[in-house]
Design goal:
The complex is a heterodimer.
Chain A: E1 4-11, H1 13-30, E2 37-42, H2 46-61, E3 67-70, E4 101-109, H3 113-125, E5 130-138, E6 150-154, E7 161-166, H4 168-171, E8 175-181
Parallel strand pairs in A: 2-3, 2-4, 4-5, 5-6
Antiparallel strand pairs in A: 1-8, 7-8
Chain B: H1 16-33, E1 47-52, H2 58-69, E2 73-78, H3 87-100, E3 104-109, H4 114-120, E4 125-131, H5 137-151, E5 158-162, H6 169-180, E6 184-188, E7 204-206, H7 209-213, E8 218-221, H8 237-244, H9 248-251, E9 259-261, H10 274-277, H11 284-303
Parallel strand pairs in B: 1-2, 1-3, 3-4, 5-6, 5-8, 6-7, 8-9
The chains are: A alpha/beta, B alpha/beta.
């Protein structure tokens, strides 16, 4: 992370595990079971988080829920202003979303623009019965009227700070940290 | 990694990294094509001009659909062949297109190098959709996409290209493309249809079709351009089919599960037998679908980004 220094650890391995366990229970409770439930992880770090939640739901309920992967690049609202094209990766939702309860999963919720794009992307695949949102960290500063249904941890941040979620599957280590621009860099 | 070029004029000099970026992006686009609602908002507000100085149905339609699936607006201009001979008029066309606000121009032109000239006179990105007998890069990219998808990779494959290599822009782009991706390209056709010194591209020339097919993983049949055959480059259609046509017996010489490809439109019974064109090894129809995915990838990669910020 060039020019950023670690300021504080918000969640460690245990903290992440407990937050996800709680979210899994909340999802089951809120939806009165897992009938017609499906999880969709938003690339990149929503994907392993969705897989982990599905694993926990399997442990609790003894049944598998379908898991998909969403790439929101083609739905971004800033494509025409970026200087270079972001990489488009594959959306893989191997089940019909029609009539399902979809839980979108992402690592950090910030402006809400990613979620706006994800909502459009999911609805382009069909008409779910309802869509819910689970995030590991909500750092505030919303720019759109969007809120999460399940939150691992609410973390008040300043806009100068950044929240980095590091996951074993992608980063080889497991923690959530706040970083700040390093003035001495 | 962004695609660091303003235009796609040809595959000569293209690297494996760049080609893989296009093919990876195309794989993502193919998922969109599999949906009930084939439309994503990525290129809203962008304008694509299809400027065709030669008749074309499949390439033009493919580009048109690609633009529409990405929510770009597209217009077709079918220019009359008579105004193409002078470079001047193309320059004027470029000025008009700029004034119209085109973000990307897809150009098909009977003269080799026309897209290069246009690209030099216009801010919009230019995609070569076939220039004379020079290059047809999007066809080659969709061929490579199809091979990569079916075979899992391109490196180390033996790719045989059979037919009228001399007049084929598809062959030229495929030589550059497949070679850059680490395949070995074999060329075969009547000596009157084999360009001089074509080996300098790294391709290998075979005069007998049986040798060219022996153990090949991919067989790309080129269309015999019957409309250009007044020159008498071969004695007759039946003789051509006998020597260079792909039939079931010849296909058995290729590797088991070798792919049969053709850029279309096909002359059944001439360069390819009926039962081979419709056989289980044929991926001719998949090529057409993949063509849309590859062109969507290119439109996305070349048209994104803020104005003037894309490196040339």
């Amino acid at each position: 992370m060039h020019g950023f220094k670690q300021k504080a650890v918000i969640l460690d391995t245990e903290g992440i595990r407990r937050a996800l366990t709680r979210i899994a229970h909340e999802i089951i409770e809120r939806n009165r079971g897992i009938d017609k439930l499906a999880l969709i992880g938003i690339r990149s770090r929503g994907v392993p988080l969705a897989a982990r939640l599905a694993g926990k739901i399997l442990q609790i309920e003894g049944k598998e829920v379908p898991v998909g992967t969403l790439d929101i690049t083609l739905y971004r609202d800033d494509l025409s202003t970026l200087s270079t094209q972001p990489l488009v990766r594959k959306t893989e939702v191997p089940f019909p979303v029609e009539g399902k309860t979809i839980v979108l999963v992402d690592d950090v919720m910030y402006t809400g623009r990613t979620i706006r794009a994800a909502l459009d992307a999911v609805i382009d695949l069909g008409r779910p019965k309802l869509i819910q949102l689970a995030v590991l960290v909500d750092r505030g500063h919303r720019e759109l009227p969007i809120r999460a249904d399940y939150v691992g941890k609410n973390v008040p941040t300043s806009k100068k700070e950044d929240v980095a979620v590091l996951l074993e599957e992608i980063d080889g280590e497991e923690k959530v940290i706040i970083t700040e621009e390093d003035k001495h860099y | 990694m962004p695609l660091l070029r303003k235009d796609l004029l040809g595959l000569e000099g293209a690297g494996a990294d760049e080609i893989n970026l296009v093919l990876d992006t195309a794989a993502s686009m193919k998922e969109v094509l599999g949906r009930k609602i084939k439309k994503v908002p990525a290129l809203r507000g962008k304008t694509v001009v299809n400027l065709f100085y030669e008749p074309s149905t499949r390439t033009r339609t493919s580009f048109e659909l690609s633009a529409k699936y990405l929510s770009a607006d597209s217009v077709n201009i079918a220019a009359s062949t008579s105004s193409t001979v002078k470079g001047e008029s193309l320059k004027d066309t470029a000025a008009t297109l700029t004034a119209l606000g085109a973000d990307l121009v897809v150009l098909r032109h009977p003269m080799a190098g026309a897209p290069h000239m246009l690209a030099g006179h216009i801010k919009a990105a230019v995609i070569n959709a076939g220039d004379g007998a020079h290059e047809h890069p999007t066809q080659s990219l969709l061929d490579m996409y199809t091979v990569r998808e079916k075979k899992g990779g391109i490196k180390g494959l033996e790719v045989a290209i059979v037919g009228d290599v001399l007049h084929s822009r598809v062959a030229r782009s495929n030589i550059w493309g497949f070679t850059a991706m680490g395949a070995r390209v074999r060329l075969c056709g009547p000596t009157t249809m084999m360009p001089a010194e074509i080996e300098k591209t790294g391709a290998h020339v075979y005069s007998r079709m049986e040798e060219a097919l022996d153990g090949a993983d991919v067989v790309i049949m080129l269309r015999i351009q019957l409309e250009r055959q007044q020159q008498g480059l071969f004695p007759g259609i039946r003789e051509y089919a006998g020597l260079f046509g792909l039939n079931e017996k010849r296909l058995k010489l290729a590797a088991p599960k070798a792919l049969v490809m053709h850029p279309g439109p096909i002359n059944r019974g001439v360069e390819i037998a009926h039962e081979v064109a419709d056989g289980i090894q044929s991926v001719i129809n998949e090529q057409v679908t993949n063509g849309v995915a590859v062109r969507m990838a290119l439109l996305y990669l070349l048209m994104g980004g803020g104005p003037g910020e894309v490196a040339n």
